[in-house]
Structures are given as structure tokens and as C-alpha cells.
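Practice problem 4.
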């Protein structure tokens, strides 16, 4: 969990520097470092111990020294000193999504608001009305931001839940006494956010497993401990429950504790109609145990197809499984390439050549290098004058490659009116054009929808990136008419993106399923800014699986030549 600590400190530093009107590129350096550390698949303590911190994109010697100090001492003197230069009240207010430095300063200086409780009371008493610069819409956004912050404290983003669960599972599965181990609950169903973590184990020595579980390094507090079950709270206040079950009932326990609640209720009702009883101990007929070792044998016993965990939400999957008509949902290995990767040509941390090598190691056939367009200067957007040089580099590298293709792409900005950041004369030269909104999130639903619709109607736009702009825990999805966007996407042969970046996962599963029903094919891409972030493709695939997508519904499961024909307008 040191990765999260370092990333959070760097984010806080960026916020303080923003309050102090510091150099925007210095602020961006801390934000980018936090983002890259958050997406690391390696433990930052190991990298620090091996003196490899500067291998992380965006981490130079200065930031590496700061990371070492945090890892070794749990604090950073520079950060502690910097916090003293701004009123603590302002700093706490900045944790609220939609409250920027100017608003936080205003609230503190005019109304002496020092924390969220003060702010909520001020809103209730209408004290914000009439303060210069604070309008009715601003107050509405602040209220939404407070709700979003509270929601964020209650649940973990999926990627963080995976990391925590993996820490425990990797430690426990090394024990000779552990015969089988699996996560359960909403984590196993790959929900976008997770409240707590459930782990199931088969073992003949449950007491020993429990004794070791409660003493693992991340544990802060033991909430309960018995011979076959224990609950702990981690140092980051995450509850983890661990259960040891009999081998003959492992499948039944896994099915039960995976959920969802509504899925389990309907499954029990189905079992009852067949004269069966199903619970976490197995499937029984007139009190006699008949199944429970694996989930597969339980579904077979109920006369239905196996239902993957991601689909278990009582949204028609049980009925489809009874008719043996469940779709064969997409698998990670079916992805043939990533269509949204940033390189050093904009704000990425790796060269195109490094990205290619990483993609080849993933057995991909292609990658689209989609750097930001010119107007996003803070993200190093590529000027028109440099596009030719970038294309020449791609052509030179393609000339040396076999069985792999680099696609010349862009993530072009959609402005407040729906215009694109490059003219059509420029766009026509790209293999793939991804259009995205990066500003004006508070516009009306009609205007935001109009911007995306206009981009869809551009004959050179192939994909709309992160269509609702959500950033988990920071920014809620902006309001758009998704029905209208999907209709226009279908009519214009435009594809929407499932952005696999951990804080986005946008489109969500519900809109994925709606897109599938309307005949709109999607792309699953990482929006990676470092080669380590290519790994997050699995999160995007999980969203697709929850949305009932098959490989036929996702354009980057197709071979290159078919893909290029498919996206042609």
C-alpha cells in the first residue's frame, strides 16, 4: 500500500502548489508522477530498495529521493513544510471534487470555512449565496462533490481492491496448508468499486491459516477471529474477511459469497422449484448433499449453463443460462492490440519503440500511438509541425517490424462547440482518430451531447474516448444523452471506447450493454501513459464482460486488416 501513500502525497503537493499559483508544469510533474505510481504493478518499496525508482516515467532524481524518504520514514519533510504555508482549512476543502483553489480560498477567507462540516452547514444556511464568484450552479456542483467524496470514502476503486486482495492472496497461497484460494464478493464480480474484500480458502488446518492471516503486514486491527473465519481492518481502513471451508463445499461457498444478493435470491427460488435447497454449504435434496465442490457442478445440477461471476447481477443471465443462450463473453487473450496509447510525443513516459516492445510481449498484433492534439499544451499536445516527424518515426519503425503494426493515431480534442483541434486536411492522414472532451464539463446536457454528436459526424473520427468523462472519486460523469449518442454512433459508423484507465472505466457496463443492443461496436483501450499501464487492459475487459460483450462486439479483437476495414467511414 506504499504506492497509494506516495501517490497521495504527490497529489497533495500538486494541490498546494496550485493554491500558491506555482509553475503549472511543476504542478503537472507531481500529478503525473502520482498517476504513474498509482498504476505501477510493482511495489514501490522494492523499486526503492533496488535503486530503480528513476525507471518510473516522470521520476527524476529529486522525486526519487522524496519517494525514498516516504518509503523509509512514512513521511516527507518537504510536504510537511509545504502544508504549513497554506491554511489547513483550504487544504481540506480541496479534497472535494469541483472545489478548486480559487473557490477554496474564497470560502476560507470570506466565511472561515475550514472543513466539510463547516461547508455543509454554510450551504444549509444559504451563507454561500451572494459571495463573489459563487453562483447557484457552483453551489450545486459543490453539493455533488461532497456526495462524491463521501461515496469515495465508502468504497474502493476496483484496481485498489485488486491490489489489496492480491497482497493477502499471494501471502496465503504460499502456505502448504492452503490447498485452494479465491477472492469472492463484488471484487470477483469485478464491480467498478468494492466495499470490502472476501477471501475463501480450502485448508485442513484452518486455525493455523487464521493465525497467520491476522498477523500479515497490512493488518492494523483484528475485528473478529474464530477457527474458520476472521475479519481484519488494514492500515488503510479496508475490511478483509477470510473464511476456510471444506473442499466438498468450496464451490457452494464461492457461489454464495460471490453474490450478488439479488442473483443468490433468484437462484435459491429456482432451486426450490426443483425440490432442492442451495446455500453456502452445498445443494441438498431432502437433506442429502448432492453437489457443492465446484460452481460448475452446481449450475449443472440446476440444469443451466455456467454463469461467469461478472454477469451475476440478476439482469437476465439466469433466464439465458436456463435456455443455454448466454453469450460467450470476451476474454483478455482475445484483445489483439491497444488503440489508445500515449508516447513521449505528448505526455507519455515511453518512446514508441519501448511501447512496441511492451505490446509484443503481450502478444499484440498492433498498437495505436494516440498522442494528444495541439491545444492540450499542459499535456504536451503535438503541434501540426511535429506530426510529420512523428509519422516518419512510425514508418521507420514499421519498416523494421514483422507481424506487428504501429498505427499513426491521435486523441484530438473536441472544443466547447464540437469543433476538432485539427482540420480535416490533417485528420485524413491518421490511421485512427480518437476524439475526446477535455474541458467544459459543466456545460448543459444538451451542449455536451451536441459536442460528441458533432464529433461522431466528422468523417475522419473513428472512436469517441471516455464518453462521459468520469474520474472515479474526483469527477462524476457529466450529463449526456447516451441514447442519442449511441443512435448517432450507429448511424455514422463511429465506435465508443471503454477506457480501461483505473479511474475511468468509462463507458460503464450498463452503457456497454446498451451499445451492444443498439449495434454499436466498442473499443477497449488503456489510455496508457506508461508501458506499465498497458496492464490495465484487463480492467476494461472486465467492464466489457459485465456488459455482456463478446469478442465480435469489440473492434480490437479483430486482425489488423479487418479492423482497418471495419473503422472506415
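Answer key:
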Amino acid at each position: 500500500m506504499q504506492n497509494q501513500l506516495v501517490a497521495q502525497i504527490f497529489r497533495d503537493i500538486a494541490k498546494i502548489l496550485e493554491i500558491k499559483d506555482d509553475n503549472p508544469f511543476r504542478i503537472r510533474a507531481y500529478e503525473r508522477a502520482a498517476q504513474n505510481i498509482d498504476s505501477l504493478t510493482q511495489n514501490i518499496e522494492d523499486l526503492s530498495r533496488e535503486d530503480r525508482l528513476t525507471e518510473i516515467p516522470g521520476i527524476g532524481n529529486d522525486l526519487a529521493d522524496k519517494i525514498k524518504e516516504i518509503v523509509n520514514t512514512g513521511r516527507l519533510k518537504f510536504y510537511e513544510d509545504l502544508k504549513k504555508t497554506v491554511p489547513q482549512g483550504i487544504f481540506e476543502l480541496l479534497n472535494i471534487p469541483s472545489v478548486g483553489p480559487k473557490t477554496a480560498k474564497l470560502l476560507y477567507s470570506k466565511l472561515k470555512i475550514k472543513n466539510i462540516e463547516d461547508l455543509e452547514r454554510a450551504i444549509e444556511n444559504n451563507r454561500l449565496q451572494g459571495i463573489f464568484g459563487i453562483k447557484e450552479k457552483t453551489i450545486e456542483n459543490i453539493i455533488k462533490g461532497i456526495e462524491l467524496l463521501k461515496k469515495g470514502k465508502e468504497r474502493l476503486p476496483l484496481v485498489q481492491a485488486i491490489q489489496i486482495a492480491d497482497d493477502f492472496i499471494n501471502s496465503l497461497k504460499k502456505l502448504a496448508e492452503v490447498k485452494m484460494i479465491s477472492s469472492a464478493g463484488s471484487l470477483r464480480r469485478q464491480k467498478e468499486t468494492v466495499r470490502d474484500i472476501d477471501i475463501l480458502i480450502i485448508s485442513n488446518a484452518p486455525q493455523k491459516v487464521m493465525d497467520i492471516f491476522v498477523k500479515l503486514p497490512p493488518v492494523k486491527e483484528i475485528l473478529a477471529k474464530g477457527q474458520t473465519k476472521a475479519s481484519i481492518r488494514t492500515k488503510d481502513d479496508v475490511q478483509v474477511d477470510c473464511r476456510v471451508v471444506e473442499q466438498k463445499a468450496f464451490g457452494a461457498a464461492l457461489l454464495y459469497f460471490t453474490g450478488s444478493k439479488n442473483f443468490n435470491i433468484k437462484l435459491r427460488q429456482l432451486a426450490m422449484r426443483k425440490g432442492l435447497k442451495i446455500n453456502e454449504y452445498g445443494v441438498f435434496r431432502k437433506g442429502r448433499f448432492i453437489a457443492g465442490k465446484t460452481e460448475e457442478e452446481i449450475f449443472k445440477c440446476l440444469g443451466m449453463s455456467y454463469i461467469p461471476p461478472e454477469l451475476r447481477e440478476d439482469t437476465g443471465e439466469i433466464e439465458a443460462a436456463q435456455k443455454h443462450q448466454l453469450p460467450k463473453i470476451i476474454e483478455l487473450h482475445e484483445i489483439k492490440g491497444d488503440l489508445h496509447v500515449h508516447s513521449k510525443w505528448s505526455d507519455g513516459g515511453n518512446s514508441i519503440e519501448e511501447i512496441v516492445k511492451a505490446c509484443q510481449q503481450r502478444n499484440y498484433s498492433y498498437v495505436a500511438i494516440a498522442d494528444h492534439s495541439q491545444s492540450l499544451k499542459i499535456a504536451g499536445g503535438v503541434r501540426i509541425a511535429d506530426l510529420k516527424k512523428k509519422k516518419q518515426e512510425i514508418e521507420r519503425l514499421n519498416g523494421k517490424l514483422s507481424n506487428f503494426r504501429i498505427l499513426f493515431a491521435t486523441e484530438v480534442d473536441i472544443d466547447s462547440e464540437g469543433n476538432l483541434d485539427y482540420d480535416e486536411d490533417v485528420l485524413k492522414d491518421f490511421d485512427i482518430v480518437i476524439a475526446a472532451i477535455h474541458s467544459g464539463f459543466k456545460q448543459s446536457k444538451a451542449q455536451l451531447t451536441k459536442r460528441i454528436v458533432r464529433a461522431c459526424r466528422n468523417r475522419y473520427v473513428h472512436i469517441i474516448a471516455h464518453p462521459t468523462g468520469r474520474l472515479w472519486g474526483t469527477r462524476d460523469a457529466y450529463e449526456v444523452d447516451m441514447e442519442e449518442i449511441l443512435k448517432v454512433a450507429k448511424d455514422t459508423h463511429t465506435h465508443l471506447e471503454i477506457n480501461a484507465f483505473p479511474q475511468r472505466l468509462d463507458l460503464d457496463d450498463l452503457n456497454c450493454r446498451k451499445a451492444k443492443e443498439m449495434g454499436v461496436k466498442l473499443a477497449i483501450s488503456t489510455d496508457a501513459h506508461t508501458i506499465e499501464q498497458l496492464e490495465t487492459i484487463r480492467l476494461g475487459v472486465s467492464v466489457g464482460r459485465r456488459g455482456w460483450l463478446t469478442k465480435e462486439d469489440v473492434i480490437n479483437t479483430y486482425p489488423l486488416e479487418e479492423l482497418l476495414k471495419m473503422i472506415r467511414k
